[in-house]
Amino acid sequence: MFRSPIIAASMVAFLALYSTVSARPTNLQEQNIGYSQSFLQGTYVGFQTLLALAGFYEENEVKQGMAEDSELVIDAEDEEDQTEIKIVGLGLGRTGTTSLAMALEILGYTVVHDDEQTELTDLFDAEEEEVIDIDELHEILGLRGYNATLKTAGYNWVADNPDVKAILTVRDNPDKYVDSWLVAAPFIEILRQKPFCWLNTVEALLPSFEAEFMYETTGGKPEDFLNREALRQNYEQYVSKVQEAIPSSRLLTFNVKQGWGPLCEYLGQPVPKGIAFPHVHTRAKLEGEMFFLRVITWIWPLAVLAIVIPLLCIFMALKRKFSKSDTIPKAAQKID
Question: Do the Cβ atoms of 196 and 202 come closer than 8 Å?
Fold first, then answer.
């Protein structure tokens, strides 16, 4: 889990107390929450992100697959739960992908999105190391019970698989996309700082994070990943490329503000009764998450000191105790 024994000693005890939390939003209408409350909720999401990056959501089989010189474990579901990838989300980050993921889950799909990325570390690592190819990756996801993904497939893969449907989420205009994305983009810089760069999960997923945050958003020009104009131009070009590559019969260009209607019609699903379409992961919430993660990069030495100093005190106390016991009393020396 940790590449540094000192960091492991200082953080494991703290994180283990909270290892069962889930980062999926529970309020489907987060846009109705005030800024301050959303920001505070975002800091909690940041804490959950820390847990995920520390590998606390990885199953034992995933950890085994990450071990050096080990073979990839398929870890298939029971036969009745095995499936195949049927839906692919192709929207860039901050275009409503989390809202779409939750909508698909409400409709009964099992989705690979942000949370699942840190639970499927072994598959991302195996693809990066060319142990498996993109087709094998999606076959294994199906065997593990997933039938929709917003994290693992590009538009070329969809174009080559005629049984797969795609959903391209978009914003009202490119500038709104850029404004929102620039809040999320520094995440990749945070991951390169201590203590995150010491985490095995981060090390395994960093190539996929770099592809998402620096290459996909810039058209392959990572040096421009914070350049507003480059992001704006790439957004427009990316939308056009997706629409050109995939037949309209297998592609829904979708703004989450459109709600259930277009999505359910496209998927052949009934509109859920009494459930509003999800609108989650607001910019205020994202700002809170990024703030928490940045704070971790500032204060992590304190966590080390909180463990090291008490251990040092215990060591010194024991040393004094044993030093006294080793000293022979003068009276005993005279008797001898």
Answer: yes
